[in-house]
Amino acid sequence: MSLAEKIILSIAIPIPVDRLFDYLAPNSVNIEKLSPGIRVKVPFGKSFKIGIIIELKNSSDSPANKLKHVEEILDASPLLLENDLKLLHWAHRYYHHPIGDVFTSALPTALRKGKSSALSSTPYYELSLLGSKFDLALFKNAHKQRALFELIAKQKHPISQKEISSHFRLWQSSVKALLKKELIQLCEPTQKTAPLEKQTPLPANTEQQVAIEHIRKNNMHFSVSLLDGVTGSGKTEVYLQSIQAILNKGQQVLVLLPEITLTPQLESRFNARFSTKIETFHSKHTETQRRNAWLNMQQKKSLILLGTRSALLTPCPNLGMIILDEEHDASFKQQEGFRFSARDVAIVRAKMLNIPIILGSATPSLESLYNVQQKRYTRLALLQRAGSATPPILSLLDVRNQYLQEGLSPTLIKMIKSTLAKNEQVLLFLNRRGFSPTLICHSCGWTAQCKRCDANLVVHYQQQKLRCHHCASEQFLIKSCPACKSEELKPLGLGTERVEYALNSLFPGKKAVRLDRDSTQRKGSLEEQLSAINSGQVDIILGTQMLAKGHHFPNVTLVALLDVDSGLFSIDFHAAEKLAQLIIQVAGRAGREHKKGHVVMQTRQPEHPLLNTLIQQGYSHFAQAALAERKEAQLPPYTYQALLRATATEPQLALEFLSEVSLTISKQAFHTLLLGPVPAPMPKRAGQYRYQLLLQNEQRKSLHLLLNAIVPEISKLKLARKVKWSLDIDPIDLY
Ligand code: ADP
Ligand code: ZN
Ligand code: ZN
Fold first, then answer.
1. For residue 346, with 0-12 CB atoms within 10 Å meaning exposed, 13-18 middle and 19 or more buried, which class applies?
2. What would the pLDDT profile of 25-72 be if each residue is shown by its tens digit?
3. Which of 299, 441, 451, 621 counts the highest number of beta carbons within 10 A?
4. Mean pLDDT score of the chain
5. Least confident segment among 120-134, 354-368, 494-508
6. How does residue 166 score in pLDDT terms, banded at 50, 70 and 90?
């Protein structure tokens, strides 16, 4: 037998089974060229799958006559490099998630599907040395050549054929002529010179200076800096200056942001500062755009990647720093499939690479503040707003016994009027989309319920629909009660759509825009609305938590939270932290430049301790108090949790399955507290009954030792095939 026949490849394949699959290398291939991190196409069941080589070995546990050959080797060199593989192995162990899913999740969709990993070789052009000294007058009557030459000359990057086509038609012969005259030359897509700073940095204020200095001093090794800066304190400026120091060393930088903050606004701030190409990676991009951004980083063609959670695992062979903005944001945790925390994995990545990581937020998570207490992170505080902006004034507006017009109290209406009279903008926040969360019959009390979920159907008046916000169910808005035939159906409660109607009649002649998931579905519509706001065409901005993040609306001076009470009563222990963060983030949209900002919160709980601590003493105090409560109650971050969820079409299946798991666990010692099985807070969703079992331990290590022992046992349970189950490590949502 030849060597080629003997070599066995362990392949990670994206299926929900936690094991690798052995294949024989193709006969024709040069073994020397194979290594972990290369993609392969393999026969699997009746079809083919794309997988990743994890290991090369000489023997397999499967009988030799059962082994199939790899169908095709897809890459000439590994896509995932040694450090990436090491991180993914860690993530696989830590999250106890099927290995194939973990490894393939590092690839962008196009590459997961088996598309080519070769970057397109469209020609790029730049001026030659001769060209850079050329006198334009010498073009004489060659107008087209001259125009083309001028276009190429004014680029900061080499220009591609495609870009030229967007400026000129029928330019090919002119390019040929310029090439022949050696005024321009073919080149690589990115410039070779060190990236220069285009726009000079803002002169940092004292607090920013301290932060930048600290980061710069520690940028040669692993360190976690928590940039705890109030909204508008200039955190972005600190990032930009810290990034510059890394670029100067010729290294790459990975910047992670919550999905919605990745606005063109931020991208253009980066573009304005650096003359190196900025790659972006988020869900609004096409598969090809994401693939190209990924490959440009992987091949060191680009130095900066701005991306969301899914960009975290992008290979950056020369990574010098990671920045994670709005580190408290829940969107950094993947809530389905491979349930990883991009923040936590980013920290591990930085540690493995021995590079610095900056976590930034105006409302740091309790975990991160705890890590500061434990001296694992360094807190860098920015307590003042940058430039001339001052912090907004927060106050509670007691609306008990007040007559509310679609949720707006008379005092609030007055405040809105006087703000608008000064030609300033108002921002109204309500975290509920649709017209009203309930449709109720005034005659018999019937309410519209989702048949597949334990939830009300939400009235969407504009589209004349009743919609479930938890599954895809929807139906036409009915006119009479199905129970008693009465036509007295009333929308109960308040959604953004309903407030929008009210605003139009309360403030005639004023322009209101609504920003929520419904109004921004069309690609580009969020951008359009944001630019209308910033160019002053909008008087009132109304929206959901979409408004809480990152936006800089300089002319907003009044922010009102219409209903904070609904957030005060939740059974999830994370709820108080999330509500406090949301309030402070929304409040932070007020008075971001020289005009003073006011924030009012309508409440029927004006004595509520959370609201009062937050308003009178600020987020920091709130967080310290909340941490003390967590400690008292022995909750994370003082303990470690894992949540086992099971769903089934019949409730008893899910319950029995978790009871069996619970029994298996209690046979092992490990001092782990078991809570449940209990029905999930929403016991039925999309036709599935949901139960959960919470595991809690004071030691992270003990919890994981237990999981190592029991996860394989769980998969072997008979019921495991009749239910859908998942494991969520460090859950942030107990829904
Ligand atoms: P954050 O990210 O902390 O909310 P930003 O970085 O968006 O804050 O900064 C808020 C505003 O302050 C921006 O308009 C920014 O240009 C400005 N700014 C930041 N740093 C300075 C500075 N040192 N001097 C003057 N203006 C600054
Ligand atoms: Zn009725
Ligand atoms: Zn539903």
1. buried
2. 988 888 888 999 999 999 999 999 999 999 999 888 888 888 999 999
3. 441
4. 91
5. 120-134
6. confident
Ramachandran area for residue 35 (φ above 0: left; ψ -120 to 50: alpha; else beta)? beta
| C-beta of 550 in contact with ligand 1 (< 6 A) | no
Residue owning the nearest CA to atom 16 of ligand 1 = 234
For the record, the structure tokens of 187 come out as 């080149």
pLDDT at 197: 62
Tokens standing for residue 227? 């940039």
- Give me the phi and psi of 268, to 5 degrees please: -75, -25
Lowest mean pLDDT, pick from 215-229, 407-421, 515-529 = 515-529
Ligand minimally distant from the alpha carbon of residue 230:
1
Q: Is the pLDDT of residue 525 over 50?
A: yes
Amino acid 3: pLDDT:
47
Instruction: Please tell me the distance from the alpha carbon of residue 727 to that of residue 180, in angstroms, as a whole number.
Output: 63
Query: Pick from 559, 566, 578, 555: which is nearest to 429 by CA?
Result: 559
Q: What sign does the CA torsion over 633, 638, 642, 645 have?
A: positive
Closest residue by Cα to residue 731 from 684, 707, 695: 695
How far is ligand 1, taken at its centre, from the CA of residue 497, in Å? 33
Q: Is the CB of 261 under 6 A from ligand 1?
A: no
Q: Over the stretch 294-311, which tens digit does the pLDDT of each residue have?
A: 999 999 999 999 999 999
Give the CA distances from residue 432 to residues 379, 399, 563, 673, 686, in Å, rounded to whole numbers and listed in that order. 34, 19, 10, 36, 20
Q: Ligand 1 in contact with 381 (CB < 6 A)? A: no
The ligand 1 atom at the shortest distance from the C-alpha of residue 235 is: 3
Question: Is the Cβ atom of 234 under 6 angstroms away from ligand 1?
Answer: yes
Q: Which of 212, 237, 328, 593 has the most ligand 1 atoms within 8 A of CB, as the residue to mutate?
A: 237
Q: Whose CA is nearest to atom 4 of ligand 1?
A: 232
Nearest residue to 432 (alpha-carbon basis) of 564, 330, 524, 533:
564
**Spatial distance between the Cα atoms of 52 and 46, rounded to a whole number of angstroms:** 19
Atom of ligand 1 nearest to the CA of 554: 14
Burial class of residue 238, CB neighbours in 10 A (0-12, 13-18, 19+):
buried
Alpha carbon of 145 to ligand 2 centroid (Å): 77
AA letter at 107: L
Q: Is 551 in the pocket of ligand 1 (CB under 6 A)?
A: no
Quick one: pLDDT at residue 245? 94
Percent of the chain with pLDDT over 70: 97
pLDDT of 593 reads 78
Question: Which bound ligand lies closest to the C-alpha atom of 688?
Answer: 3
456 alpha carbon – ligand 1 mean position (Å): 43
Cα–ligand 3 centroid distance for 38 (angstroms): 42
CB-CB contact of 344 with 256 (8 Å): no
Q: Which of 208, 230, 236 to mutate to test the pocket of ligand 1 (most atoms within 8 A of CB)?
A: 236
Q: Is the CB of 229 under 6 A from ligand 1?
A: yes
Strands (E) across 106-175 are located at 124-127, 159-160
User: Within 205-274, where are the H helices?
Assistant: 206-217, 235-248, 264-273
Residue 350 to residue 517: CA distance in whole angstroms: 34
State the ligand closest to the CA atom of 682.
3
> Torsions phi, psi of 333, nearest 5?
-100, 125
Report residues near ion ligand 3: CB below 5 Å: 450, 452-453, 468, 470-471, 473
Asked if 211 and 233 count as a contact pair (C-beta separation under 8 A), the reply is no
